[in-house]
Amino acid sequence: MKDFSKELSFKTSRSSGAGGQNVNKVETAVTVLWKVETSVFFNDDEKTLIQDKLKNRINADGWLFLTVSESRTQLMNKNKAIEKIIEIVDKSLFIPKKRTATKPSKRQKQKRLDTKKKLSDKKENRRFKF
Fold first, then answer.
1. Is residue 92 a contact partner of residue 54, using CB atoms and an 8 Å limit?
2. Taking Cα atoms as reference points, which of 62, 58, 51 lies closest to residue 92?
3. What is the DSSP track for 51-107?
4. How much is the pTM?
């Protein structure tokens, strides 16, 4: 996990929702912005991976946006925004292992057929025979 918080820029705005007069006069919502292309913390391969996986969050100018307005204070929202954007970028860099296709072994196949045969015999024995 790389800490690229030095490259982040912030904007504040008035938060929506409950909070009374505090909402109307204090700018507590924080929007964090990060320019992916100009980052010095990531190499070109990582940048393309980030851009591919987060293409829905990145605008046409190449800025990654994230707005947080969970808390009533600007400082707490700023800290949460930094944590969230680092977490999002970290998750986008994760490459899952490819699944290797496997087939069931002969023993597994035979065991399955044996259990089917046992169940079939059990049901066959329940029938009334003339």
1. yes
2. 51
3. HHHTTTTB-TTSEEEEEE--SSSHHHHHHHHHHHHHHHHHHHT--PPPPPP----HH
4. 0.70
Q: What is the mean pLDDT of each run of 10 residues along the chain (130 residues)?
A: 82 76 78 90 91 91 90 90 93 91 95 97 87
pLDDT of residue 28: 84
How far is the C-alpha of 122 from the C-alpha of 11, rounded, in Å? 72
CB count in 10 Å sphere of residue 82: 19
Gap between the Cα atoms of 28 and 38, Å rounded:
28
Non-local CB neighbours of 15 within 8 Å, separated by 6+ positions: 23, 26, 27, 28, 29, 69
Report the pLDDT value the prediction gives residue 72, as an integer from 0 to 100.
82
Instruction: State whether residue 21 is helix, strand or coil.
Output: helix
